[in-house]
Amino acid sequence: MKVSETDFLRQHGGSWAARRAREFSVVNIHAREIPAPPERIFPELGARELLMPSWRWKLLFAVRILIGKIFRWDRGLASHAPEPLEAGKHYGFFAIEWVDPPHEAGMGVTNQLTSGLLCWLLEQTPRGTKVFNVTLANFVGWQGRNYWRVIRPFHDTLTEDSLKELARRVASRSAVRPA
Questions:
Q1: Residue 45 maps to which CATH number?
Q2: I want to staple 162 with a disulfide (CB 3.0 to 4.6 A). Which of 50, 128, 149, 155 is the partner?
Q3: 35 is in which domain, residue-wise?
Q4: Are 57 and 158 in contact (CB under 8 A)?
């Protein structure tokens, strides 16, 4: 579910994502309620499957990487093997900048078109946890702005699929734990 930037910033003004939001022209927020406490959800945020939650996303990322190489958008950008969700480590091609378990994790990436941050924010609710995926980005020049226009529908769908995968992972981990 998409979340209003205004509502998010009003309710979570002290968060790392909200404090950084003023630096960016794009603020894109999605949320999903997951029936589990933040302590069970937070460790799952480090799963690389959240970046590419299905075979179709792996295929689209491969095409995107190829296009990025052709147009030289991603000079110096490297994807890292799974690392712990800790500041200074990497989450795929993101550098992890902020970790406040079990509430928030923030990471950044920069290439020739984009300077962006991705943040996971967890808010405990009476029914479990509301998980927010916050994307903050600036796009460089006309190529960057057009790039965002093209990828935005894909980005929104990928974010929703990532939240579904997170809910699935938490549910499957909960099912195998003894009561």
A1: 3.30.530.20
A2: 50
A3: 2-176
A4: yes
